[in-house]
Amino acid sequence: xxxxxxxxxxxxxxxxxxxxxxxxxxxxxxxxxxxxxxxxxxxxxxxxxxxxxxxxxxxxxxxxxxxxxxxxxxxxxxxxxxxxxxxxxxxxxxxxxxxxxxxxxxxxxxxxxxxxxxxxxxxxxx
Length: 126
Prior knowledge:
The chain has one domain (about 5-120). About 55% of the residues lie in helices and about 20% in strands.
């Protein structure tokens, strides 16, 4: 009759390396998840920058004699398009830009994202 210690050691030998195999299988998934979070953070950063550019442009247009010219010169975002509309009381500035998805592995899976910011302010007398 085999001893209980002998049967336990055979079971332990079969499970040897299981954690290593599980880690090897899970690591690529975790890396893709981490890269996806990084790409999301970049798009959110670009969205916040576009919203801030629209706010600054609307403020400049609200206090300027020529609202459309003032708003167009404010944004420092490369490749952004700025549109201004004034209706006599309010000025609205819309800034649109492309946020590239160029994080390795994730950028190939996702298209570039268009981010848009809009701000409206009351026109002030010049």
